[in-house]
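Lab manual, section 2.4: Encoding a predicted structure.

Procedure: take the sequence of the chain (708 residues), apply the prediction step described in section 2.3, and record the output as structure tokens. A sample record is shown.
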Amino acid sequence: MTTTASPETEHPPGEPTEAEAAAARARKEQIGRYVAMILLPFLMVGMMITGYLAAMHAPSPNNMPIAVAGPMQQADQFAAALEASDPSAVDVRVVASEDEARQLLRGREVSGVVSLPATGGDTATVYTASAAGAAQVSTVTGLVAPQVLEQGLNVTVEDLAPLPAHDTAGLAAMFMATALMLAGYMPLSIMLSNSPELLRLRRVVPLLAGWSALIAALVWLVTGPILGAVEGHTAAVLGISWLAVFSVGSVQLFLTRIFGPMAVLVGMLFIMVLGVPASNMGMSVYTLPSIYATLHGFLPTAATGEALRSVLYFGGDGLGSHLIVLALGAVLALLATLGVDALKRRRSPDGGIPDVTMESLTAGPRPTSNKVRYATLAFFPFAMVVLMLSVMLGAMYQPAPRDMPVAVVAASSEQAEQAVAGLEQNLGGLFDLSAVDSVDEAGDLVQDRTVVAAYVLPSADSPSATLITSQAAGMSQQQAVAAVFTQVAQGQQVLLTTQDLAPLADSDSSGTVSMYIAMGWIMSGFMIIVVASSAAPTVMKLRTLLPVLAGWSVFMSAVIWTIAGPIVGAIDGHFWQLFGTGIVATFCTALFTTVLVRLLGLLAVIPAVAILMFLGVPASGGALSVYMEPEIFRVLHGILPMPAAVESVRSILYFGADTVGSHLITFVIWGVVSLLCVIFIDKVRSARAEDLAPEHADLPKDQLSAVS
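Recorded output:
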């Protein structure tokens, strides 16, 4: 009689069965997903906030190159005096002639020029170039003008490369470069998770070339014909844009071969975290730590931004070196990718493409049609580029005061009203002027941010005019008001003194700390949901999600305070107030993102980023006053989470937390409404799943949920 052993009797004793081994692998995978759910957003947010705060919270001159021209002995003496005044601030070079110095400035080899007069002259000329960086003009003038005056000379300032009227802030090149970087590195990471078959070299290179052409045309279309931020230079803009996207995409392709899904972090580190400060676009690299001047020479964000700046403002001067950086990066990356692929084939000839880890970019099942799946994949970064350029650049590329509230103070109401009437005729549309007859009342209005500033007319007791401002309420609006009312006082032939009720701290000299802390809170809430929905979808059930979000909000609020305080030194104290506000902001932002993810899947990133960041940052007043942007952003300032976060931090740091309560109410409204929406969506889907159950009885629960 023949007997057949059961699988149990054939299995070697002491070793796990196939079922046990499969269960162990599943547990490890599940643990890995939970770790990724926490680790990825933590690293993304931590890198971004640490990098931006460390680089830009307190910019100051650092080896800023200045050229000095004039009679040799006088130039040498001036150069020595300038360097002695602050040796670490400047890098002075003496040149033979003014023409040579001016050419160095046009070529962006120096940030400013001092041309000393010939013997017997009494006026020195300081040359600057706003188009090379509007922020560095005031820095250069502040460095050299005092030294010129100490020599007993008068000073005149001349801008050799003023910004054009259609781009008065010089932001077109910066936003174009940022959008091109986004279009270069984002698609490759999504491909790896959703459509890895596209990453075979023979397929991805022509796809990347076509994608680069599409994005180049899009960037030109939005910035040129639609917005008018760029005029002319069509061929050059298209060529630079194509090369930038292709180069960054090629490097990101190589990074995906080396780091797999973690390549998105490496790309973000070099393109955004280090690349944006090193780009020299928003802030001069000579006002940042010295490492950024080095990074400026080879990172793609800097090369792209400087190439565009060269074409748009300097007639192509210096373009070649930046194109070489981009082209060399693309060639080396593709050659390295070829080498890695050859090595992998030698080690594993039968190795296939990576597994799909993100089945669908939408809330529904994976599309059966490749065309639909690829179109969805392309739409994701395409929409992000469109929104970044149209919304953020459209909001900020032509800043100018628009109905900015300013109080006019006089000894009596009648006198104040007469002054308002006269000023409105001359300053029509720039300011919303109101008459006040008390200096104390005007100061209170400035202190509580009801008005941006107060202009106090001369009186018998005070023969000079006074401008009461609040730097901490917004540096850009303070500078705008000061510039205009200095001219007003000159027209009235009176002296103007300035009183700052809330000056910025030395550790926040650029006034951006509030924005970056707020950005950390908002990004923390947004990123945890986006990553969890794809890495650990089981966590997304509401009863599991709420405690996870509570713990995450507490953790990240503490992390962001630690980065801003002990690590970077951008703030001092205020732990409990910032910690508590950060918890509420992060938690409520996460709930809002959950609604969008429930409806759209990973495509929820598009509306979420559009609302929270692309609309939120301009509406926050963190980088630019809302009174210098289109009027819609003043409305959004009182509604969106990002402005509530920025104003909360400002209030805590500089105004005794006077308005935090109202901003917390804004967060709570967003959170409660979002929670109710999630509950409603889940109930509707649950009911629909029950209705579909008899028709799809053979489907697993997760697939049935996707069908519903």
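Check your result against the sample. The first helix runs from residue 7 to 10.
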